Structures are given as structure tokens and as C-alpha cells.
User: Fold these one by one.
Assistant:
Number 1:
Amino acid sequence: MKEPTPTVAPPLITRDFVLLFAAHFLFGLSFWPYVLLPVFLQTLGFDLFKVGVVIGTASLAGIVARPWVGGALDRIGRRRCLMIGGLLFLAANLSYLGIHSSGGEIYFVRLLHGLGMGVLMATFFTLAADLSPATRRTEGIALFGISGHLSGSIGVLWGEQVIRLGGYAALFISGALLALLSLIMGLLIDEPVRGAQGERSQDRFLEIAFRPALRLPLVATVAFSFSMTSYMVFLKPYALTVGIGSMTHFFIAYTLTAVAVRLIGSRWPDRFGLKWVLYPAMVSMAIGILVLFFRPTLAGLAVGGMLAGVGHGFIFPILSSMILGREREENRGGVMTLFTMLYDFGLFIGAPLLGWVAQGGRYGAMFWVAASVLTGSLFAFVIFDSTGGHSR
């Protein structure tokens, strides 16, 4: 009797996957230092609510652009979208050099910034899905995401040092150079072969947004990014009010923990089930957010960063993989664009709302709201989602 041929897992780490990893890493080094931008805005005279509005403006641009991006990814290709997004993001970094007051110019720059990021994020994660074998997609997206977390562990510390040595102008120039390097690296990626397109991508995008099976994963995506806003936007001002000069402890712990989680547990969601890993990850992130308030020390920042990092390390790839698994393969560009659009939407509503809550030093209330929103989406999942982790 002939022995069965052992199943060999398809390769994941390919030339294009490595190039994509590098392009996203360089993009992250340019992006992450902008968590320091709220302090720059405060020096221009913005209060916390207006800081939130300015920060949220970038997300608005990304949201508005997403329906076009969803169609463009399938119509003109991934590489052309990378070029468009990369040039916009490069221009935005340079445009910050012209901001010297609290006038309306900053809103235009933030719109440009968000437009570039919106195109790039949708394209990067669509490429990550393209370049990951279907049977290893959660693992592939998780490993790809390590590039962003690695850049985060370096980027915030890098940004603080650059500002210390050359001010915010040096930060904006260094961001532009890193954005240019990311663009060059991305354009070396070969255009993936795409399947049949069927109906127009714009129509598909609108239809996908209302799929019943996608509702709770998409709501959880909004809740996830909304909760992230509490530390991505307001941690630096909070740290200054409690006498902590640097938030590097948080972001190093956060990003390195997320990297470790993805290296060690990248196959856990596919092995144990997406929801069985997603739920504890959401709890971990919510607790991490609350630790920032209850332990306003360097050690507290580190512990909060570790717990939130565990959450982020699993939540993002699981939700993206879950959404992909509940939609047809030929709609990949549209569904990943929708996912990243709603990720931006959480930041868009979170920045001004949490900034308003934090007015007058009410950071504790802000952290409680952020943690409660994430926990609420967890309960909604447990109670109302009867769909399996992967179903089309």
C-alpha cells in the first residue's frame, strides 16, 4: 500500500514578502514619531479637544478615500496605489515644515497626511493578504505586522531624540526621508496576479460593507482603534501631567510584546480558533489601558504596554483574517480596504471624543471610556456572533 504524501505547507517568506515587510517597516519609522505631534500642537495653542480634532482630520481623509482605494487596488493594481500613497505621504511630511501657528493650514496638512496613509495602509495589508498562502493567512498577516511593531519600538524613541537634537523640523525632515525609502522599497515588489473581477469594485465595496457576517468583526475593528486612540494620541500629554517625561517605556514594552506574541503565537488563532484567542486578547488590552491610570509610573507604563501589546498583537491579525475568511477571494482588495477604513473611523471618532473627555485633566475617565468600548464589543461578539471564524 502506497504511503500518503506528507502535506507541505506553502512557503510564506518569499522575496516579495520580505520587500513588503521592509517597506512597511520604513513607513512605520516615519509614522510612529507622530504620536508626539499632540505636544507640538499644544505649543501652537490647541487644547486637548482641538488636538483630537486635528489628529482625527487625518483619519477623515483616509475614510473618504477608502471607497476609491478599494476599486483602485483591483482596477489599477497594488504597485500604482503604493506609488500614489507614498508620494502623498512624502508630501505630507514635508508640508509640516510650513506650520508655525494654530491657523487652518494644519488641517490641510493632516488631510494630506491621512490621504497618503489611507492609500498606503489599505495597499500594504492587501498585499500582505495577497502574498500569504490561504492556509497561512492569519500567520502571514501577523508576521507582516511585526514590521510595524518593530518600527514602533524604535520610532518613538527615535522621534524623541530627533526632537531633542533638532526640534520638530528635524522630525518632519527625517519622516520625509524614511517615507521616500519606503516608497522605493515598495515599488520593487512584483504586481500580484489578480483573479476575475466580476462586477465593478465600487459596487462590491458598498455591498461588502453591509454583509451580515461581517457586522460584528467590523464593529470590533472600530472599537479596537477607538480604544487605541487613548494611548496613541493622549499618552504623551498624560505622561507630562503625572510627571513622567518620556513614554518610551510604554511603547517599547508595547511593541516588543506584540512582536513576541506574533512570533510565538502566530499559529494559535488557526490552531485553537480565532475567537478563542481574540477574546482574551481584548480583555488584556482593556486591562492594559486601565493600568495606565491606576499605575502612573514608569513601571506602570511598561506593564500597561505589555498588556496592551498582547491585545494588539492578536486582535489586528485575527480581525483582518476573520473578515477575509467571511468574504469571497475576488473581493480581497475591497474587504481589506473596508477593514482599514473602519480602523481609521475608530481613530476619527476616538480622537476628538476622548480629547473632550480628557479636558481638565480627566484622563482617568478617558481611559475608562476607552476600555469600556473595547469590552462592550467583546460582549457583543460573545452574545450575537454565531458565525464561525471562517465562512463565506
Number 2:
Amino acid sequence: MIDIRKLQLFVAVADELHFGRAAARVGIAQPPFSQQIRALEDELGLKLLTRNSRNVALTSAGMDLRTRAIDLIERRDRLVDHVRRTANGDAGTLRLGFAASSAVGRLSKIVRRFREEVPGVTLELDDRDGIDVSAAIRRCEIDIAIVRYPFEAPDLDVVLIHEEPFIAVMPANHPLASCATVCLADLAGNPFVLFPRAASPGLHDTIIGMCIRAGFSPQISQEASAWLSIMGLVESGFGITIAPKSAQSICSPAIICRAIKGTDDRARLVIANRRDVSNPLIKRFQDVVRNSVQSDI
């Protein structure tokens, strides 16, 4: 196998067509430089250069080798650069999982911020039910996930990145739409539109628990996995819902959002990943998320 260093020396002399200048260019003395070029010719069994006391010229084999050697060296340099950037968290592929319940508000902003700050990383998004997220991380199907808390996964690293209040969401013609705020008890008796528990068990149980503590068990008339679909069902009159405040960003003018008074419950967003995996891209993503939250995105 030809030593890449010999190819680099050969390209230098092929460019300069002068052994002294080529040796000075690569920073070694001329005698060992000339020895390396002769060793390369011996390895190939070919004459690459014709030389006399006055001139150095490339043979046809030398001209062909120069072109291919330059390409090989450039590809080697790109490979080394890519590996180093991957080790620093600036290149590679990061598989990001998320549940539909977390795909509103901050998720899109975090993803956009990460792609802007680390353009060399390919971000693969994997949308799946919340119950599947922890198993997918353990099976190494995804590297990191953004999910709603509570997220029961004691064997994973889970870091809180954002929390916000809940709001009541209703059609614009709902009797409570004229109120500045609402109490949870005021929502009793209304049909609810909510996501299936499998989509985000923690968030689902939090919302149901809020209602039960207010004295009623919500009657779920329709289910949809994505918040956009839930809002469409609310607008169509299938019921009302309780959602994280950020969900109001996708509400149409035909939907009214009202703050809920009398409750300290918060919708929490966390990032989760395996503890035993050393992946610089995970730390880079965590840093971007942390900086995004601190700057309020």
C-alpha cells in the first residue's frame, strides 16, 4: 500500500518540477526527499519523473499519478476534517425523537436553532407515541428525545428544559369565551377533545388529574394525536380541550384560549437520552437547547 506521505511529497515535486524547491516546500532536506521519491517509483515499478542536472519533467505515468494523488489527498483531508468535526459535535447525524404532544411551540424553535448553529449535523426527526420514546432510546433507534413530563424512565438522563401554564381552549361561540379567565370546575360537563394516553402518558395523566382535583372526570368525545388536529376538532365544535399555553400559537381566530385560574399545574418539556452513550452530538444538542431556553428563544 502506498504511503500517503510519499504521495504528498510527489505532488510537491510534480508542482515545482524542482527537487530543492519541493523539499523546502514540505520542510525536509533534499537528500531524504529524493530518497522518498525514488522509493515511490520503486514501489510502483514505474518512472514518474525524468531528471537531469538541469530539468525535471513528469512522465505520462507521473502526470496521471499527480491528478489522482491530489484527489486522494483532498478526500483524505475531508475525511479527517469530518471525523474531527464529528468528535467535536459539529458534524454527523443526530436522531431526535419526539411525541406528538411535544411537537407544538418550543420543539420547532429548538430544531430551527440547532440547524442554524450546527449546519454540519444532519438532524433526523422521528415522531412516535410517548410510550415508545423511552424504549426507542434504549434500543438505540434514536439518540435523544424531546417529550412531555412526567416521563417515567429512571435509567435515562432526563433534563427539564421548559415549563408553562395550561390554558382552556374552546370555540369562539362557547359560553365561557367572554370570560377573561376560567376555573377548571367551569369546564365540567363539556365534551373534551384530547390525545390518546399512549401519545404522552405523563401529559395525559396530568390533564386528567387536574380535572379530577377540580371535582369532575372529563368526558372525552374525540381523540387526535397531534395538537393541530385537536384544535381543528375544537373549532368544529366537537368539544373543548386543555393544552400547554404554547398551543395557542396554532389556534385559528375561531378558537378562544383562556388562562386557567386556581391551579399551579404546569406543562413541562424535557430532553431524555441514554446515560451510557458517549455521543458529542447529544451534548451539543443539549447545549443549544439550554442556550435557547435561557435566551427565551
Number 3:
Amino acid sequence: MREKNNSDQPYELLGNELKKLRDRRHESLIEVSGAVEIEGDELANFENGIFRPSEDILALLISYFNVRESESNKLWKLAGYEYSTNELNPDGDDMQLQSQPVIILPMDARVVYTDQVHVVINNYGVVINFMQGGSNNIQPLAVSRVGMSKDHAYSLLEVLKNTLEESSKPKEIKQLPNNTSSSKKPLNKKKKEKEA
């Protein structure tokens, strides 16, 4: 999840930039670490320059802080990672999925369970990353990524809300009407009428 160098604070410059981003939003270590689903101590080590975040965690932090492209490139460089947002998308806009090739494979009907979700929203739409948490010192793994328009995301939110509400309602047990008491009364009337 993190990498360490020989000196005490090998990523001090990166840590200072991450701390500035957090201070700019007036948020605590706990608030930010909870939002990107990492431990508070881990985020403190990143900000102190002791460790560098993995590429996935750095991407989550950049997304959470809504960092501009130029600032994002600076963070990638300070972390020592080779690529930048310009290399991911040479046009310079925020839609990184635009230039990725699409491969269509046969549908896999297995259900993949997730315990973490990361959502990225930009002017083009929404990307939802469904992730499974790793065990000790293993970072979360993205098991599925889904992209959609903002309108579709609102529709999905409404369908999910309605479905959850429907499933939370107690189910009514339907009983058949008690026919024995209602059927005796008309029979008794008919018998009395015949006797008279």
C-alpha cells in the first residue's frame, strides 16, 4: 500500500502538497482518510513524507480534493510515478476514459461482492469504482468500474432508493377469508323458509 525510501522523509515535498490540499478544505486527517477509506495514521505518514501513497490511493486523493490538471501532474511527479493526466488523455480534458480501447468479452454471470465504492464525477459523467478491501497491507482492488451520464446516475440512484425502501417494508401475510361462519348463516335462513 505504501513504499518507503532510505531517508526519514523521502517524500516530504509530496507530503507538504497533500497537507496543503487538506488544509485548504479545512478538513481533519480523520475526515479525509475516512473519505478515501484509508487509516488516519497512513494519511499522516503520507503528509509527513515518510511514505508515498500507492498510485490508486494517490488517484483517490487527487479525485477527492478535486485537484486541477497542472497540480495533479505535479503530485504524480513528486510521488515519482511515470505518468500524468496528460499521458492518460493527451487532449487535456478530464475524461480519461475517452482514449481507452474497448474490448467486448462474453458476459460473466458471476456476482462480485464489494465493500468499498469510489465515485468520480466530472463534466462528462460519473464513474463508479466498486472495490474489495484487501487484507493486511494490501490495497483495495477494483472489481468493477461502471461509467454513465449524470442523468443515468440520478435514475440509478432513484431505482436503488425505491428498491431498498420496498425491500425494507414488512411483508403482509395474506389469509383466506373465514368461509365457515359466513356459509352457515344463509343455509340456516333457507332451512327456516322451507319449514314455514
Number 4:
Amino acid sequence: MDTDFDLDSYFARIGYSGSRDVSLNTLNQIMAAQTQTIPFENLDILLGRPIALDLPAITQKLVTDRRGGYCFEQNGLLLAVLQALGFDAVAISARARWMRTRADTAPRTHCFVRVDLAGEAWLADVGIGGVSLTSALRLAAPGEQDTPHDKRRIVAEGSRFFHQVRLGSEWSDVSEFTLEEMPLIDREIANWFTSTHPQSHFKHRLMAARAAPAGARLALLNDELTIRAADGHTEREKLRSPDELLEALARHFGLHFSPDTRFGSNGAAWPV
């Protein structure tokens, strides 16, 4: 725990003024607030900027500079907040499986936070893009669990666990894990791969996502903006220029860049 961590600035950033006691209610309210105000995004990678995981760097970027980040930054920040509040919380390694088939062996380059409360273990993951959790999941519960934005479940298959989300009538894998802890050194190595390796999908796709009130979600992939309501109704908008992209990042995700900013993603229909 970093005793110098500025909780007041973090809570101001996410617009949270609720309880700070060690409880499930506090955990869930913090998760809901962070996912709605600090967007998931990989824009620094596309701009050729390094991703630093030490707490001062994460705090500067996500809190002070009002940017977003991806799993190691988002869940690293949540972990620091929970530990500063007195929660029993650790980082757990995982494989991101969203939009992948079981035939793919995804790299172990994801992490989430395990929280132990009153003898029960909970999964908190605010850093997995458009399916980031807005409340915690019971790790030991075998059935369907409600969250403010969708239904989830944890499925055990031998020594492996799968976090799944139900969209419509279909269950899809979100992540796979074995409950092995992921200390900072392991997160730094995985972060180096995801942010610099030529084959990392973060190097080739522009991504931004955040949860919204009333169960809605917003997501941006390259030049396509998607707004999905709680009832599943989805609207998609093609962005026609870099200027429209910058406007969408500012309006929907609170991410502001200079007018001449151009990202390195090659998935857009127009030059970037």
C-alpha cells in the first residue's frame, strides 16, 4: 500500500462522494464510478508513448491528466485505491478472451483484482474494454450473477476458470484465469509485450470504451463508434475523418488532443 496515495483526488476524478468503509457496497460503487468516468483506451501506444505502471505515473495519467488506460493501468489504479482504503486486494493474472475462440491460446497479458471480504472472494475487473465490470463478481458462485450493465458468470473447467458475459441469449468468454497472483514485475513484462510488440493488437487498433448510466456502453474501434443501450439496442456511426475521431474522443470519452493529433492505427478508412 502506498500511504501517500491521494484518495481525495481520485474520488474527485471519478465523481465519488460515497462511503469509504471496507464493504461490498463501497467496492461496487467505486467500480461503477471508475468505469463510467475513466475510459479504457490505448491511444498512447498508437502515439509511440511508453506505458508506465508505477503508481505515480498511473495517477498522473488517469487522475491528474484525466486520461484513460488499459488493463494494467485501470486495474493497477483500482488496486492502489482499494489497498489504501484497507481492502484485502491483490492482482491476478489472466488471459483476455473477449472476441476470441477457445481454439486460440491467448497470451497471459491481462490482470484483474481479487478482493477478499468477510471470507468471500470477489473478482473486480475495470480494465477489459467494452465489457469491463461495473460491479464485483463472486468467484465461488457457479450461477448467473447480475451487474448494473449485464449478466455474468464464473465457469470452472478443471484448473481453469472462465469469466463470461451474456449478451442476448449467448454466453461469451471475457477472460480465463487460474487465480495465480500477478506481482508488479510480471505486469511490467506483460505490459512491455502488449504496448511494444509488433504483433500486439494494441499496436494496430484504436480502442476506447466506457460504461454509461442506465446500463448503456460506448465503444470506439478505429473509425466506428458504437452505442449500446441496456436493452441491447445498438447504434453505430462511421467516423469520416481524423477531425471527427478527435471530436468523438472528446465528446464521448472525455479525451482531448490537439487538432493536429494523428494516431497510428491502420484500421480506419481514412489516413491517420
